[in-house]
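Support reply, case 0932

Customer input (verbatim):
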Amino acid sequence: MKHVKGVAMRVQRNDGRWFACGLALLIGLLLVMATSSGVRAGPTTWSPTGSMTIAREAHSATLLPNGRVLVVGGYDGDALASAELYDPSSGTWTPTDSMITARDGHTATLLPNGRVLVTGGQDNHGDPFTSAELYDPRSGTWTPTDSMTTGRELHTATLLPNGRVLVVGGFGSNFTPIASAELYDPSSGTWTLTGSMTTARYNHTATLLPNGQVLVAGGGISSNVIAVASAELYNPSSGTWTLTGSMTTARYNHTATLLPNGRVLVAGGGSTSGSSLASAELYDPSNGTWAPTGSMTTPRDGNTATLLSNGQVLVAGGYGDNIIVLASAELYDLSRGTWTLTGSMKTHRNEHRATLLPNGQVLAVGGSNNFGPIASAELYGMAMPPTSTPTSTTTGTATSVPPTSTPTLTKTAMPTRTPRPTKTTTPGPTTSTPTSTATGTATSMPPTSTPTTTTTSTPTPTMTAMPTTTSTPTATNVPPQYAVYLPLVQH
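Our regenerated output:
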């Protein structure tokens, strides 16, 4: 049974202000006409773009070195094997080769060689996969690679500075949280076990820090969704985990974003009680502690978080209180430690994916509303003009350089079989969120690792193509030093 949260609206009359009301109505009509006639979106508004060929949620989205976005797998009532490509220059989607295995709740990581590694996920029965496969953008084809030692879903995958991929935690067989971790070596195409976490967890976040260590925070520790506040660090040089400071609030299905100052912003998520959280906190790698920062204007989980080129963090959609699917979005200003509302998305969506494009816009795609998976996509912000490059006098084809920025924490969703206390999807209000005028700027730190997607690298305010968690678990397209965040999937 779906619960609909009513929104009461009052209209007040003032006999002395009929002229002002009439003028406001006229202005509103003119704005609607201007929008419908194709006026370009402003810097804090969303505009529709081409829809995918297939509706899907719990998919992955990866920014490729050529500037296109690869969307793979997901769920539309069944696990999907299909894949498609978004071309920002035309705003259109085209199918590409399908994966060998249909899956959702997987991760996708852009490797230094330009290929995309997809790992794990679940089948239609909720059983986790050990299999992995590689997508080659040059040929548009998939090939199998070595399988993981453990089947897992709702895990995280992080590209390390040495080019290997660290896969951590997730759900194993019988819906059991996993503590184990393993490493994928692209040069040999093989997996090897590494040290296990101190706490088995799923739906956590994993963030590559500037010092090369990986911060894992929060998550669920049982099939009935008990959230934890603990956090731990992985040291690639020793292959071991050590506990670090715990968050101030236990949470799962949250997002984690590496900021230009080297700190990690964790926001929202779900609590053990099943309610969504508005709180946010900052992790300081220099002393291993967490400190509260401003809370979001709206509690949410299953949303996306994207570091913008101006240093602000854009959070969009997700579940609100009572599992209302949200269209609202807000911006975090690092210099002030505060959140402000910005333009709302055209479509309410949860468990979607968000990718920062080379032109500075954010692509939000897919997800679900209260009617099920959706195929639509939309863009936040105005495209920035490309930087001019000197004209070469020689002829020949240009090769694209892999991006140096981070992938957006794209979350993978949680299977239905994981209990989500008293949460039934409810349609969100249709009123649009006020546009924020906050602008804030921040300088970004140079990346310390190779570009990646599903999980998260050092942000740079340049418009070069980026490879992305989210988040949280987990992938958004998410760059190397960005957190990979994997959100809950509720089929």
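We compared this against your earlier run and they match. Two observations from our side: Confidence is low (pLDDT under 50) at residues 1-41, 388-491. The helical segments are 18-36. Please reopen the case if you see a mismatch on your end.
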